[in-house]
Design a protein that fits this description.
two-stranded antiparallel ribbon, two-stranded antiparallel sheet, 5% strand
């Protein structure tokens, strides 16, 4: 099957998606830009998204650590392993883009369409489990075990250098708080399917954060605030499909999720 897009646009597509729920890509002149899918487009509620690569995320990594080097790059393409395909100039975020799943030598855009990574989607990852365990240990009073789980993750990160040497960054923590665990999940699991949004909703429900007080910049949205909509509890849950409401009298009596009536 022939490619639908030119190599230039293929090289740009995956790097515009970051930790979002729904993004639509539209052509604007010779480059592709992401847009929020609004209620008028999909017939439901406006959904908050993250657009492009966030400086909030970039700034969360410690300088000199291999995790940052393995997550971002200042080149914009890697089509079927080729980093020399020409692309339009990318001037945002100091020229850096997310390359976690298309980094040369490790994975790249698949060859048929050139818009998907050859790196398989993770359904479950050990780092995720260890950080969930850290949270559980901390909330049940076992801070030492929680600290051990977090430092195991940080040790793995130190060993992920290109040349096999052990980096000094990130250093082990000497104490651990819930904020430390939240920050560790933010950077260790960045751009991994569904993680960030699930974490935010879980922490909101547990009272660790209050999403109702968050402004667009807190979500990493660096654009016109007038284009961003987020309401609690309206946007914490998807609407229950009307077909389910029609066939389940008990569900119909209870009503749809808040804000979706």
């Amino acid at each position: 099957m022939p490619n639908r897009y030119s190599n230039i646009k293929q090289a740009m597509l995956p790097n515009r998606i970051m930790l979002g729920l729904i993004i639509i890509l539209v052509a604007e002149s010779d480059r592709w830009v992401p847009c929020i899918i609004t209620a008028q487009v999909i017939g439901v509620t406006t959904i908050p998204v993250y657009m492009d690569l966030q400086k909030k995320l970039m700034n969360a990594y410690e300088e000199g650590g291999p995790r940052k080097e393995n997550t971002f790059a200042n080149y914009t393409t890697n089509v079927n392993g080729d980093v020399n395909v020409p692309t339009p100039a990318w001037k945002k975020f100091d020229g850096y883009q997310l390359m976690k799943y298309v980094k040369p030598g490790r994975c790249w855009f698949e060859k048929n369409w050139g818009i998907l990574s050859t790196n398989n989607t993770r359904l479950i990852r050990y780092g995720d489990i260890k950080l969930l365990a850290a949270e559980a240990y901390l909330q049940t009073g076992n801070k030492a075990k929680a600290l051990q789980q977090v430092n195991d993750i940080r040790e793995r990160a130190r060993r992920s250098t290109e040349d096999g040497s052990i980096s000094a960054v990130p250093a082990d923590l000497t104490d651990v708080t819930m904020e430390d665990i939240m920050n560790e999940r933010f950077i260790e699991l960045a751009a991994e399917d569904g993680i960030r949004w699930t974490d935010l909703r879980s922490w909101h429900a547990a009272g660790y954060i209050d999403l109702s007080t968050w402004k667009p910049i807190d979500f990493g949205y660096n654009y016109d605030e007038a284009n961003f909509e987020f309401e609690v509890p309206k946007h914490l849950l998807f609407p229950i499909p009307q077909g389910e409401m029609n066939t389940n009298p008990l569900m119909a009596a209870a009503g749809n999720n808040p804000g979706c009536e």
